[in-house]
Amino acid sequence: MSFNIAIDGPAGAGKSTIARQVAKKLGYIYVDTGAMYRAMAYYLLMQGVSPDDADETERVCEFADISIVYENGEQQVILNGENVTGYLRTEEVGNMASVSSANPAVRRKLVELQQRMAAVNDVVMDGRDIGTQVLPGAQVKIYLTAGARIRALRRYEELKKKGIQGDLEQIQSDIEQRDYRDMHREISPLVQAEDAVYLDTSHLSIPEVVEAVLKLCTERQNG
């Protein structure tokens, strides 16, 4: 039986960073569902399709083939045969993903792929509704969060390191708006699963958070 770790939380909480490191230490497969949703968002942007147009979104979703491969230990997201990893972290794609992820056709296609991967592999999966909808039977569930200002500062520094000049106030505003949309959408809103462990990373270092998650995994595996 596969061992699944589900990490949920709002945008910018550090889910991907923590999930990636935990997976590496455990030798599990890291599945960044956010990247998959961003790939679909990028696809919709390239197609000029509005996620508000349910019929058109459902039609084009049929032609979107999204897969994950690893090159030199790094996850790469492939969209219809093209590596689109480098396009997925822009604010435009992130905002589009927050909106398009609520579309039933988008969610159906990606959730099916995610569940299939987790059924046959030990995985660490992060996103907005992993513990509540995608992997409700996950052995470990964590709700990872941090204050909006802290998350905005982290994003600002991340962009700065890449040589991109960001607007801190605008980044925080985007994060707060994204939080609201994610928590109030009709389909699979962002909520903490009843059996998830709440972990606020506002004043914790990355190694401290990773250690906390690994400790929880060990307890569940030995319990």
Give a written overview of the molecule.
Its main location: cytoplasm. Keywords: ATP-binding, Cytoplasm, Kinase, Nucleotide-binding, Transferase. The chain has a 5-stranded parallel β-sheet, sandwiched between helices. The mean pLDDT is 92. The chain has 223 residues and is an alpha/beta fold. The longest helix has 17 residues. α2 packs antiparallel against α5. Helix content is 52%, strand content 17%. It is globular and about 50 Å long.
List the SSEs and their pairings.
Blueprint lengths: L3 E5 L6 H12 L2 E4 H15 L6 H8 L4 E6 L2 E6 L2 E2 L7 H10 L3 H17 L2 E5 L2 H5 L5 E6 L2 H14 L6 H17 L12 E4 L5 H17 L1
Parallel strand pairs: 1-6, 1-7, 2-6, 7-8
Antiparallel strand pairs: 3-4, 4-5
Which strand order does the major sheet show? 2-6-1-7-8
Give the overall silhouette. globular
Structural class: alpha/beta
The helix-strand sequence is EHEHHEEEHHEHEHHEH
The main sheet comes to: 5 strands, parallel
Give the % helix.
Answer: 40-55%
Poorly predicted regions are none
> How many β-strands, per DSSP?
8
- Quaternary state reads single chain
Distance between the termini: 16 Å
Subcellular location: Cytoplasm
Binding site for ATP: 9-17
Keywords: ATP-binding, Cytoplasm, Kinase, Nucleotide-binding, Transferase
Organism: Ruminococcus gauvreauii
Task: Produce a short descriptive summary.
The chain contains nine helices and eight strands. It is α/β, with parallel strands linked by helices and 223 residues long. Helix 7 packs across helix 8 (168-184).
